[in-house]
Design a protein that fits this description.
Elements lengths: L23 E9 L5 H10 L3 E4 L6 H9 L7 E5 L5 H15 L2 E10 L2 H11 L11 H18 L2 E4 L5 H12 L1 H6 L6 E8 L10 E4 L20 H10 L1 H22 L4 E8 L5 H15 L3 E6 L5
Parallel strand pairs: 1-3, 1-4, 2-3, 4-5, 6-8, 6-9, 7-8
Helix pairs in contact: 1-6, 3-5, 4-5, 9-10
């Protein structure tokens, strides 16, 4: 028999507890065109309680999520910025997206874009170099990237156009999207409806699923007594309701949405973005968006609002 004493665990030493493995509640993958606002979005999502990392190779995303999953946090919300500048990365995301999405209860792919003129101006203002400017101009690089990214754009759950969006406006939209209570309320397959008013004279957005034109309605702008009031205020509301055309339009829109929404839900569409415009985005479109929102919320739908040009 060996003279070596058998090694016993130290008395009183507590057994090390294994960290619980909890599911990631919300995973957001952010990609899109260079200069369109991904970095701003990532930093703001941190303020909303997201763990975030930027420019992580797609092949390493599962390992990163596995690490976070083992931290024992009760609610883990994760945002990952993805820069897709090479063909291999593009094809990798297309093939791996569903596998990555399985790591979270909810997963969304957001695509940020802006029109070429806006992106050129941003690069001129910041004096940064576009990552694809190898023997070509900034504008040419932007158009090349836009063309290469089209397959990923088509995959996205939500396209966010920042062409006419200031940093505070972008933050406000993200706050609406990812507010903790909204995330907790969201059920699998539930559709979030974005209703946005805008003015045609300031240009239309490019990321809407549907654009509606309210310029056929009588315009309160031409009544000096109504001009200072916007579409959320009582004098304009009474004016448009009294005419009857606005309410008839809303009735038809509600019937259209009653038809469309169940079909979008069946296809597991997560977001439905509807823009309603008038000339200046101050009276008629604001009224229509507010009234339509009330009707849809009464039916139990999750509706988010934005009045793009109300404060111009």
């Amino acid at each position: 028999m060996s003279g070596l004493a058998e090694k016993k665990p130290a008395e009183g030493k507590a057994k090390q507890k294994k960290k619980a493995v909890l599911p990631i509640s919300h995973l957001v993958l952010l990609t899109g065109l260079s200069g369109a606002g991904k970095s701003i979005a990532l930093k703001y999502l941190e303020d909303l309680g997201f763990y975030w990392t930027d420019n992580l190779p797609i092949s390493l995303i599962p390992a990163y999520l596995q690490y976070l999953q083992g931290t024992g946090e009760e609610v883990i919300r994760v945002a990952v910025g993805i820069h897709l500048r090479e063909g291999e990365s593009l094809s990798r995301l297309q093939s791996d997206y569903q596998r990555i999405a399985e790591w979270a209860v909810h997963c969304e792919l957001l695509f940020f874009e802006a029109n070429p003129e806006t992106l050129v101006n941003r690069y001129q203002e910041t004096r940064r170099r576009h990552p694809l400017t190898h023997g070509c101009t900034v504008r040419e690089a932007i158009l090349l990237e836009r063309q290469a990214m089209e397959p990923v754009r088509a995959m996205a759950d939500l396209v966010i156009d920042t062409s006419r969006t200031t940093t505070p406006q972008l933050k406000d939209r993200l706050a609406q999207l990812f507010h903790e209570m909204q995330v907790e309320r969201r059920q699998e397959g539930e559709l979030t409806i974005f209703l946005r008013s805008f003015g045609f004279k300031y240009g239309a957005n490019t990321d809407a699923d549907m654009v509606l034109d309210g310029r056929f309605l009588p315009n309160p702008y031409y009544d000096p007594a109504l001009r200072p009031y916007n579409g959320r205020e009582e004098p304009v509301i009474r004016f448009l309701e009294r005419d009857g055309e606005a309410l008839a339009f809303l009735d038809r829109l509600q019937s259209l949405f009653d038809y469309l929404i169940p079909r979008y839900q069946k296809e597991k569409k997560r977001y439905f973005t509807v823009d309603i415009g008038c000339t200046g985005g101050y009276h008629r479109s604001v009224f229509l968006v507010e009234q339509l929102s009330q009707r849809l919320q009464q039916q139990g739908f999750m509706v988010l609002l934005r009045h793009r040009d109300l404060h111009r």
